[in-house]
Design brief:
Blueprint (H helix, E strand, L loop, with lengths): L1 H18 L18 H6 L3 E5 L2 E9 L7 E6 L1 H20 L15
Antiparallel strand pairs: 1-2, 2-3
Length: about 110
């Protein structure tokens, strides 16, 4: 009887441990980046690096499908702004695309 009680307790503890969330990775926020707000960029999760006279802002992001591997991307403030602008444009373009007509032999369209 005591063995069963211990076994039930261990199973409950194991299930509780599996249900907990893993530690959250640092969150980066999109902040307009320029020389006047480097401190704010650091607070937003960017690391400031000086490489060959250029100030680079580096952001560490988890690799897709992994909780332990990360990719670090270092760009200038202007490059980050251009990347954000390009991403917004891509999302806008995808949201305005018209899907192709449904393929149906009965409707006269050829597949």
């Amino acid at each position: 009887m005591r063995t069963r009680l211990v076994l039930v307790f261990l199973m409950a503890a194991t299930l509780a441990a599996c249900a907990t969330k893993p530690a959250a990775s640092p969150v980066t926020r999109d902040v307009p980046l320029d020389a006047s707000n480097l401190a704010e960029a650091q607070a937003a999760g960017y690391k400031i690096v000086n490489e060959k006279g250029k100030t680079l802002l580096c952001r560490k992001e988890p690799k897709v499908g992994s909780h332990v591997q990360f990719t670090t991307t270092c760009l200038t403030a202007q490059e980050w702004e251009q990347l954000a602008k390009d991403n917004r444009n891509n999302v806008d373009q995808m949201s305005h695309r018209v899907p192709p007509p449904a393929c149906s032999r009965a409707g006269g369209l050829s597949c």
